[in-house]
Amino acid sequence: MKKQAQVELRTTPHMHAPQDVVVIMRNVVFALLPIAGWSIWQFGVSSLALLLTSVLACLLTERTFNGSKGNTLGDWSATITGLLLGLTLPPAFPLWMTAVAAFIAIAMGKVMFGGLGMNVFNPALVGRAFVQAAFPVAITTWTPALFEGRFGSFIPSTLTPPFLIPNAVADWNTRVAVDAFTGATPLALHKFEGVSTPLMDLFLGTATGSAGETSALIILLCGLYLALRNFLDWRIPLFVMLGAAATAGLFHGIDPQRYPEPLFMLFSGGLMLGAWFMATDMVGSPVTTMGVIVYGLLIGILTITIRLFGGLTEGVMYAILLANAATPLIDQYTQPRVFGQRKSS
Questions:
Q1: What is the DSSP string of 214-263?
Q2: How far apart are CA 6 and CA 274, in angstroms?
Q3: How far apart are CA 227 and CA 123, in angstroms?
Q4: Residue 181 to residue 188: CA distance in whole angstroms
Q5: CA distances from 319 to 132, 262, 275, 304 (A)
Q6: What is the band of 109 on the pLDDT scale with cuts at 50, 70, 90?
Q7: Contact by Cβ (8 Å): 23, 227
Q8: d(CA 258, CA 119)
């Protein structure tokens, strides 16, 4: 009796790419390290402590809440959340507040939705949004970059004990600032005082701001590394920047004295970091071709709109969170027509 051959039926995909979640996440961490390194060079041990606290608190929260699923730290997602969160915070942000932000980012931004791949919003921005509302003074306290003694001592507010008001840094800023420092970011200077920061300072990264948003050049190079290796969808940051540049250019053309030029808007604040490393989150971004374009343009337009007409100087965080919320609708209304079927009238 002949033995019949068995045919094994499997669903797609039939060919598997060598990249998996762990490889992609690990490369994102590698891409973030130069940005983190520049932050430490600019702001010293306070920035180092900020980033370490953010990462460690994220890892601890992930391990605590996902213990029933085994050790999920090996997928690198919590490390990415910790790095991104720390890079969006001011260098003078107290460490205990950083730990609170990290806890919220993982617990409420990720675990509450079911873990990796289930989160609706970017977890790092969820944590950042929480401390934006909970600690509005601390989140808008800025310190000068490249100040003397940054590797030998902490910024006074860094080591504030838990549940206490951070120490004021105004006098300290005056004492350590290399140049005249007003305690404001380039966006705040332009919005409230009409003072523009040189574009080269924004591009190279010698101005103040959040820990990882100062150098547009480094962020761009690190983002391009991921794009060239197909670890992110390059169309998202491209259309974020196009949407922001077009919106800023429109208003700058109407009133150049009041509204800044497009390049200033692109290089200042967290637009570059958000466009390349947060808006491109595979879970919170659309999957259709047209959806990706709409999503990117929406973030760019919302960012500039909030910056110009909102009460806040920055709008990237809320723009991305709003676009994350709109992603299911964007995917729904941008589905391509099925081959052989007519468009519904």
A1: S-HHHHHHHHHHHHHTTSS-THHHHHHHHHHHHHHHHHHHH-TTTS--HH
A2: 51
A3: 21
A4: 13
A5: 14, 17, 10, 9
A6: very high
A7: no
A8: 39
Residues 47-80 as b/e (b if ≥16 CB within 10 A, e otherwise) read bbbbbebbbbbbbbbbeebbeeeeebeebbbbbb
- Any residues with CB less than 8 A from the CB of 207 and at least 6 apart, and which? 145, 185, 186, 197, 201, 214, 268
What element of type H or E holds 128? helix 123-134
Residue range 124-132: average pLDDT? Answer: 97
Token couple for 86: 């720390």
* Residues 45/22, Cβ–Cβ less than 8 Å: no
Q: Distance between CA 262 and CA 248 in Å, rounded? A: 5
pLDDT, tens digit, 9 for 90 and up, residues 236-276? 999 999 999 999 999 999 999 999 999 999 999 999 999 99
Choose among 333, 219, 194: nearest CA to 272.
Answer: 219
Residue 117, both tokens: 């791949």
SS3 296: helix
Kindly report, residue by residue over 26-47, the tens digit of the pLDDT: 999 999 999 999 999 999 999 9
Q: What residue has token string 């969170």? A: 321
Computed over its alpha carbons, how large is the radius of gyration of the chain?
A: 22
What is the biggest distance separating any 2 CA atoms in the chain, rounded to whole angstroms? 94
CB 46 within 8 A of CB 150: yes
